[in-house]
Each structure stands twice: as structure tokens, then as C-alpha cells.
Design a protein that fits this description.
Elements lengths: L19 H13 L6 H14 L4 H17 L6 H5 L17 H16 L11 E4 L12 E5 L2 E4 L1
Antiparallel strand pairs: 1-3, 2-3
Length: 156
């Protein structure tokens, strides 16, 4: 049975397309000057860390934006923490940062903050779903493929 999920609104005029270099600079800035972490940012960061820490920054941002898109879609829970807590959707393992390995976590937090702020245009516009390229979930036939970024394929 196909499920129809409305796509999020297109980027507003306040969102800017971002080059990989500019994203790298923005992440470095956010990671170097962290703000107090809101629960929503922590929920997204935990998911980005587990699902995409091995991906380039654009891939990590796309995963974070999927979570934000779901929360805004009206077809998923309204909070990003509820979205990432849905059974079977995302990794829910706790994040334990060992001494000397904080960089991937700091990047995940920075990426999550950037996605939550919504000032950067979407990397995979309107994406609500993604999967690793080595699997083929049953639902891929009922959703529109919109991008492949690194090892992940994104759909709306």
C-alpha cells in the first residue's frame, strides 16, 4: 500500500545554497563556538552521528534535514525528538565520546544546529526518507528518488 506524504515547502528566500567549502567553514565555526545544546539539536545530532558520521558534510546535512522535514510535514510527529524516536526509523544508541574522538560528535552537533536553523537550502530538497545504497527497502517503489549523496539515497 502506497503512503502519500506531502513534501515540505520549498526553501524560502532566506535560505541560501551552500557550497561544500562554505558548509565546511560554517561547520568549523559552529564546532569551534558551540552554543548550549537544545534537546532538539541533541536528538538530531545523535541520529546524524550514528547514521552519517562516515559521510561528507553534505550527506550529514541531508540526513539532518530529513529529520527536520519529517517534523514539519504533518505526517510524522511534530518534534524532531519524537521523529527520531519512532521505532525502526533511526539508530537510538547512546553517544559515548571517548577522549580524543570528540570531532565527529562536534561535527554532528554543528550540522544539527545548521539544519535546525533552516537558513541553508536543502541538500536533498523535500527528502523525507533515506537508506544506505547497499539495501533496497520495499518502500522505494512508492517514493520519488531525489538524490544520492555519498552512501545514502534520498526520497520524498
Amino acid at each position: 500500500m502506497a503512503t502519500t506524504v506531502p513534501a515540505p515547502a520549498p526553501p524560502s528566500s532566506t535560505q541560501e545554497l551552500i557550497t561544500p567549502e562554505a558548509l565546511q567553514q560554517l561547520v568549523a565555526l559552529r564546532a569551534a563556538h558551540p552554543r548550549p545544546m537544545r534537546p532538539a539539536v541533541e536528538c538530531i545530532a545523535r541520529t546524524v552521528y550514528h547514521e552519517a558520521a562516515n559521510q561528507a558534510l553534505r550527506g550529514q546535512l541531508a540526513v539532518a534535514q530529513v529529520i527536520v522535514n519529517r517534523a514539519k510535514s504533518g505526517s510524522f510527529p511534530k518534534s524532531v525528538c519524537a521523529v527520531v524516536s519512532q521505532p525502526g526509523q533511526f539508530s537510538q544508541a547512546p553517544v559515548t565520546v571517548a577522549r580524543g574522538t570528540a570531532r565527529p560528535w562536534d561535527v554532528a552537533v554543528a550540522i544539527s544546529t545548521i539544519a535546525q536553523e533552516g537558513r541553508v537550502a536543502q541538500v536533498a530538497p523535500g527528502a523525507l526518507f533515506f537508506h544506505a545504497d547497499y539495501v533496497r527497502p520495499y518502500w522505494t517503489q512508492t517514493h520519488q528518488r531525489i538524490a544520492q549523496i555519498g552512501d545514502h539515497i534520498f526520497y520524498r
